[in-house]
Amino acid sequence: MSDVIKVLAVDDVEANLMIIRGCLKGDGFELVTCTNAVDALQKFKEQYFDILLLDVIMPGIDGFELRKLIRATDPERPIIFLTSMVEDKNMTMLNQITWDANTYYLNKAVGKKTLIQKITEVVTTYRQKLMAHKYSDQMEEERALAGELQKVLLPNWCICNDDVLFSSIYVPYMHVSGDLYEIIPFGESKYLFFIGDISGHGLSAALYMAAVQSWLKMTLRDNDIRIHELMSRLNRFFCEDLQSKNYMTALAAIVDFKNNHISMHSSGHPGMLFASPARKTVTVSDTKKGSMPLGWMPDAEFPESENFDCDFDDDTIFIAMTDGVLDMENEDKETMTADDLNSIIQCQLDNPNVVALPYRIKGMMAKMGFDRAPDDFTIVAFQKRSARRGFLERVIQAKLPEVDKVSQEFCAITDDIRQSTEIDLCMHEYLNNVVIHGSHDKKKAPDLIYVSIGMENGDLVLQGAERGGKWDITGTRETNDPQLFTPENGSADSKTEEENLFATSGRGIQIIKAITQYVSYETNCGLNETKFVFNKRTPES
Amino acid sequence: MKADIAAHLKELLELEDDEIQEFYDAFIKEFDKSCVDLQEEGVDSDFQKLRIITHTMFGYCENMGAMDLFALAKELNAAAKAEDVPTCRASIQKIFQMHEAYLAEG
């Protein structure tokens, strides 16, 4: 933006425009004049102007009408009305001039100095406002980028390895977040689980979060560390190395999946929940134990006596969260109670699914009306892998070559060639569609896909969970719709030709209908769960 | 009259003497146009139109510093507002006379 102020002056009386020319001649102004509104609108479309000087009464389109036409596309460009109607000015006229916050008023013949002063003052304010918008947009872009980078720093939302099945939902309040979580292997079947919440929002919290994550990974090179020592060292790092003015609540645990033992320490953080599908109970770690948040005092003590140790069952599901979950509000600004949360989790224990659990919890909370987030929101759940004995589970990248690999592996679970072929067909139809349709819209592209296969209540069940676009397959049994998946809101009219091509590329419904008893689908907070129950096999068939 | 306009423009726009005539000519041109408009409307005029003509006159008179003409335009505007035909007629005549006087000054 140059220092020269570009002015568009509109007046049907040439003598008046001459006066304006006389006032603004010389350095600092570039003036374009028009004697009617139509020409002025054309000029306004063609060129940039910092300000418009308008006469009120003009034949044809008057000054007020002209402003209305300009405001339709530009609500903030400053306008000064130059009028001589001082003597008979009335409230109606003044109201007409001033209803718009970016319109000003000057008497005609105010003099060169006054006119220049007013124009300069108004344009300076306008330019500052533009700069502020630009700066704010830039900040927003940077926050969004930082948010994306933060997601890369966090573990994958779903992890499935020999020891643990882990899932997480993470929703930053303002792109970036002060929430962090980690699950880091160290030693044989031992993992450090960490969840923390750095005070404040925005970039500073996000930067501390990244620093803490790096520190955790570095520190775990020392395999013998005890959980309270880790907290103590992290506190010193937070206070002394980072010299943070923020503080952090955290829950850290060393989970030994070989010996089914967990040792944890809470520093002002909500406790860990233990859900037992076998006993249908939800209990919380000892909330009386623990220490102060990290970063309050460099010499704070994190004694061993404040650790919480316990053994756990193979099927125990561990659930941890940040404060933001308990701070979710309903429309009356009420927050959820711990009992409400326990009830939600308990409801899930009839059909426990660790991968879906964090998403189902958030979904249930929303159904109960707790859907207003004043803070970052994180829930993680994990379970010892052996809890789902007999199930083959994999987490794959949403890429077509991965589909082939996992399909081959899943087909091999049975010696029955026909069943094996059915699994292969179903997996290809399902996964290819998820990968292709999901990848087609990058914003909705699934990153990872969780798949499992195994016997459930005597049926062979294939399950998938991914975070791609939503699909609606509820009609597929009742209709002969040739689409396997119809994208949500996917009426043909509302889609581009290319999108329709993708939407109808699946031929799989016929195949899937032929080989499954039923297909179920649900979606919760961005996680799509699809379940295929295969036809029972008999020796004759 | 012309001397008043010159003084006003010098003060308003910080003009030099040799720049004044151009502005004066523009003023006369607008004044000519107003007189033609008033002639067309005459005494049987549409009062609303008379008010619009006088509003235009306010603008350039005030800008150019022709305060004598501004006063007559104001008088005509008030008469038009009051729909007072005799006063409108008299004011228009005074404006025409003033036009003659301005033209004589060149």
In short:
Chain A has 14 helices and 23 strands. By secondary structure, chain A is of the alpha+beta class.
Task: Explain this structure.
The complex is a heterodimer of chains A (541) and B (106). Chain A is of the alpha+beta class. Chain A has helices at 14-24, 37-46, 63-71, 91-98, 112-153, 202-219, 227-241, 323-326, 338-347, 357-367, 400-411, 417-440, 497-503, 508-515, and strands at 5-10, 29-34, 51-55, 79-83, 103-107, 158-160, 164-171, 179-185, 190-198, 248-256, 261-267, 273-276, 281-284, 308-311, 317-321, 377-384, 392-397, 448-456, 459-466, 471-472, 486-487, 516-524, 527-534. Chain A has three domains: 5-134, 3-Layer(aba) Sandwich (Rossmann fold), CATH 3.40.50.2300; 154-388, 4-Layer Sandwich (Phosphatase 2c, domain 1), CATH 3.60.40; 392-534, Histidine kinase-like ATPase, C-terminal domain (Heat Shock Protein 90). In chain A, helix 2 runs parallel beside helix 3, helix 6 crosses helix 7 and helix 11 (400-411) packs antiparallel against helix 12. Chain A is elongated, with a radius of gyration of 32 Å. Chain B has one domain (2-105): Four Helix Bundle (Hemerythrin (Met), subunit A), CATH 1.20.120. The termini of chain B are close together. Helix content of chain B is 86%, strand content 0%. The interface between A and B is medium-sized, with 22 and 25 residues.
